[in-house]
Amino acid sequence: MKITGHSLTQGNEPVILSFELDTPENDADCPCKSPLIHYSASQIIDGQTSPLLEGNFSILGIKQIELPIAAQQRLAFTGHIFLFE
Asked: Residue 79: left if φ>0, alpha if ψ -120 to 50, beta else—which one?
């Protein structure tokens, strides 16, 4: 699985991260143990990591993903947001 083409929508609340997944075809061997992925969004401010939002999403049969990464726009500071699985 590979993440391609991503964008961040900060005009509305919640703040949304959109990206595309390049996944193996359905008949190909998939090394994934589960189509359910856990993510958390956090940012580094003055050397300290601050959590924003976390959740789960499924990659089963989906190519375009949209994830909320902050409940309010003012919580997410530009250019310092990180996602972890």
From this structure: left
Q: What angle do CA 66, 67, 72 make, to 5 degrees?
A: 125
DSSP label at residue 26: T
Distance CA 11, CA 40 (A): 21
Prediction pTM value = 0.72
Q: Residue by residue, what is the 3-state secondary structure of 38-80?
A: EEEEEEEECCEEEEEEEEEEECCCCCEEEEEEECCHHHCCCCC
List per-residue pLDDT tens for the chain, 85 residues long: 678 888 888 777 898 989 998 766 654 555 556 788 888 888 887 888 888 899 999 888 888 999 998 888 888 775 556 665 4
Tokens coding 59: 């990659």
Structure-token pair, residue 21: 């997944």
